[in-house]
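Reproducibility note. Readers wishing to regenerate the assembly model reported in the main text can use the exact inputs given here. Chain order matters: entities are listed in the order in which they were concatenated for prediction.
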Amino acid sequence: MDLDFIKKLVKTNDSKIVMLVLDGIGGLQIETDGLTELETAKTPYLDKLAKHGVCGLHIPVGAGVTPGSGPGHLGIFGFNPVKYKVGRGVLAAMGTGFALDPGDVAARGNFCTVDKEGKVLDRRAGRISSEKNKELCKLLSEKIHIPGVEVFIQTVKEHRFLIVFRSVGLSGDLNDTDPQEIGKKPLEPKANSPDAEKTVKIVKDFLMQAKKILADQHPANMILTRGYSQKPVWPSFQEVFGIKSAAIAGYPMYRGLAWLLGMDLLECGDKLEAEISSLEKNWDKYDFFFIHIKPTDSSGEDGDFDRKVKVIEEVDKLLPRIIKLEPDVIIVTGDHSTPALLKSHSWHPVPLLIWSRYCRTDNVEKFGERECIKGALGPRLPAVEILPIALANAKRLEKYGA
Amino acid sequence: MDLDFIKKLVKTNDSKIVMLVLDGIGGLQIETDGLTELETAKTPYLDKLAKHGVCGLHIPVGAGVTPGSGPGHLGIFGFNPVKYKVGRGVLAAMGTGFALDPGDVAARGNFCTVDKEGKVLDRRAGRISSEKNKELCKLLSEKIHIPGVEVFIQTVKEHRFLIVFRSVGLSGDLNDTDPQEIGKKPLEPKANSPDAEKTVKIVKDFLMQAKKILADQHPANMILTRGYSQKPVWPSFQEVFGIKSAAIAGYPMYRGLAWLLGMDLLECGDKLEAEISSLEKNWDKYDFFFIHIKPTDSSGEDGDFDRKVKVIEEVDKLLPRIIKLEPDVIIVTGDHSTPALLKSHSWHPVPLLIWSRYCRTDNVEKFGERECIKGALGPRLPAVEILPIALANAKRLEKYGA
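Running the prediction on these inputs yields the following structure tokens for the assembly.
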């Protein structure tokens, strides 16, 4: 079932849908026969929604596939992440609010440390402060000159920054220069297709100039680049699903992705409580709210089982404020699993609950991985099916056929 | 999700995967409210793996489809059996170790008994001995001459043999001559496409000569042929999944299929115990072991419920020897169901368990059809998803996207 099919069924009404994304919510038991993070957490409000709604687990991309944040979110937004691809550079641009023109090539930059031979000693330059990053980006912006090309360099956070090249005839079809390992030299940029040859020349020039400019800036004495890409041309969320949508997300990548789909980006900061306040404040203005909760993922990545449990419990405590707004549909899920045991994203199915006045009650009593297996949405729902089901529960889809 | 998608995510490490295939494992209760063969069997070790791993049932080819052994195995090896087709003739060639050249046409032959009018009385010629078979194959090899064509005739077992035609411009696109019923004459070979017309002429000549040569060899006084086919050109198992693979299988068809995918064929014989010894002996040499257990299927085909139960219990007793080798991932499943009640392959979903250190515990306590419905892999997992999930559990797949 593709977007064109759903698009034809869409109708509008005044219903409201909240999609609460606990990034990396899915977990794993640490010990044999143990409980996962979500199963361990005391979540009376989530449990009540789960009991009265429908539950299941979703597969973000495909069987066995561990999704990055981009593909993970695209899936739960109803966009097949195998078909709709977005580069890291474009995500970084979107996240900083940089208005990419069609044709611009964006890349993610990392300040890094290299030794005298040019071999990478630290891929993140000791995670320099955002202040130092700003200073270096200013320096690069002032000093780098490439004839016929506008170059934009903007701080993201810590060691991370954004590079945008603006000219005619550019392409994002070239390799990363980040070798992904210490002890190796940065890779030479190479064109993956003839289209990208002009861009490769520009990037080589850029990297050579950057190297000279940063030479005495140890530990940030070189840069690594990744994810050269151009803004993709996609249908917007509103165009496909007929909903006026807003994103409440603190972190650049998620804001960028939401913007790429045409969602409005609301002010919120990165505290959970502030995100809910933003929801309350903007309640009347939108049909669909994507609320992104980052620390479930960060605590999982840190391998901190207990902190992940606590974050989930904090989110649960904020739920009554969402419920009080009387949304027609509430979706609670994640973009992928991030088990503390693995300290990384994983391939495991992601717990999912959809609540509305019109859900057919299933056998699930609590919101947890094992309980969700018993749910009406099944243990392996393709993520792209979540949004059509939510729209149906909001009575926003016409009958198909006579 | 196709093989090309998975191939791009594959990385290598030193993990080991064991796939234990109990051919035809899925069964049926004989009486209303009764238990299946697998549910009846006492299987403490399988139950323990099921409890700590993830379970489900898989669909080898598609809803309602009863798979032959070829498609059944291709599915659990991750190759879509609707897309990847292999003829019975090619399988027979592979199983006897015959080195098919590209362009060769192979077919399965059966010695059969015909009456004076040429009508088939026994499609298997009373299952003549393999010795008699060898004698007859020798006779045919010596006497049959077709200008411009090399003909190879090799004993398989009992009444079964292999025929290979080698020439230029051949095609396997013609029908079986086996009428699949007694009381009927063998069918005339006919080309399904113009490409096969030369081959049809050769086959007609071959059958006419064989008829004359065998006329006084009652009960083996004629032959039936099936599965004309050419060696398909496929990516190898190692190429796609990045795993060095070996097959421990006693029967020609399964060895043939494994060889076609580029697996090494290990010596084993057809005793269960000898198969496990072969696994132990070769443990250090491979990343992936396919172990094929035939008698679950043969007992099912014979309608022998109790023998099938016993075979399953024997396999269970051998499991500790596999577990002792400390594989990273263990898969236990079948290529299809063979319920004793039906005395044949069937369309029923096939019990499946995957065990690794990183499985998220589900609600399954024992390995059996009804229990598996409660599993995290769901009651109808497409068979082709088994291998990507196993690779993920072996940490052999990269994250998809940033």
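We highlight two features of this model. Chain A touches chain B at residues 26-29, 32-34, 36, 57, 61-71, 81-82, 85-88, 91, 226-227, 339, 341-342, 344-349, 369-370, 373-374, 378-380 (CB under 8 Å). The mean pLDDT of chain A is 95.
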